[in-house]
Amino acid sequence: ASPSVFASVELQPGAELRVTKSDGRCFFDQLLLQTALRPYLGRPAVSREEFLAEGLTHDELEAAYEGDSKVMPERLWPCSRVWGMGFAWSSFIAQESLLAVCSKACLGEQEALAPGKPLPRSTELMFSLAADDVMFFSTAGPGATMAPARRLEEQMAAAGIIKLDAKDENDLSTAICVGVELVDGTWWWPLVPRIWSILLAVAAVCTRKRASPAAVLAMHGVMQWFDLLLASSFVHTAAFTNAAPIGAIVRSVTCLETSP
């Protein structure tokens, strides 16, 4: 999912876009990692005494131990058993897993709303994925997004996926999707609090004439995300963010520009 593809959807006069959202609860922690890959997602070493001091029992340590040695060493390297959030491939695995569930819920590629593929021919049913979040869109009137959402929830339950019901948003015309807001079923807007943050950040850079590449990179990322709604692009900042160590403070910041 991307704001750019949302903004590409054209509505007929008088049409209203409605959205229903379903989310997996800690979905990355539900995706088991193959045993052969676990050593590649290791953590810094921890002693057995530290594990025991935190409340683990000897039996629990023995059950979790997967080392080659028959005798458990004094220092242990915890390895993830799941596709943890933040690992390079985790988002891909999460999205592919959900796409497989969507397919079983009779949601085909022709309804998928995604960058790099043709838009769905009809706006009566569309769906989009963002890692662990599934969004259903429809202009077919109130309630039209609920049936496909229920089919998906049935297939998620069949696959053993635990839902985060607290984040469900059902058949709304105003809702937040991947960091942008659908307003009154007609407009896609940047989030107002984020816009205020950007304005304050730009004012601070222009006033102080100093910033770190990390700070400008963070500001640049938010601006670029919202800029996807307009399909323009930023220039002149990549060289700055790559020019110095990420935490360094650089004086005389002179330009933050966008292309027309």
Give me a quick take on this structure.
The protein is an alpha+beta fold.
- The end-to-end span amounts to 24 Å
Largest sheet, in brief, is: 4 strands, antiparallel
Approximate strand percentage: 15-25%
- Give the SSE string: HEEHHEHEEHEEEEHEHEHEE
Number of extended strands: 13
Mean pLDDT: 84
Overall 3D geometry?
flat
Strand order of the largest sheet: 4-5-1-6
Structural class: alpha+beta
Helical amount:
25-40%
Could you tell me the radius of gyration in angstroms?
23 Å
How many helices does DSSP assign?
Answer: 8
Low-confidence stretches: 252-260
Notable characteristics:
260 residues; alpha+beta; 4-stranded antiparallel beta sheet; 3-stranded antiparallel beta sheet; flat; disordered C terminus
Structure description:
It is a single chain. It contains 8 helices and 13 strands. With 260 residues, it is of the alpha+beta class. The strands form 5 sheets. The chain has a 4-stranded antiparallel sheet, covered by helices on one side. The C terminus is likely disordered.
Q: Could you give the topology of this structure?
A:
Layout: H1 3-8, E1 18-23, E2 46-47, H2 48-53, H3 58-64, E3 75-76, H4 90-104, E4 126-130, E5 133-138, H5 146-158, E6 169-172, E7 175-177, E8 180-183, E9 187-190, H6 192-208, E10 210-211, H7 213-227, E11 234-235, H8 238-243, E12 250-251, E13 257-258
Antiparallel strand pairs: 1-5, 1-6, 2-3, 4-5, 7-8, 8-9, 10-12, 11-13
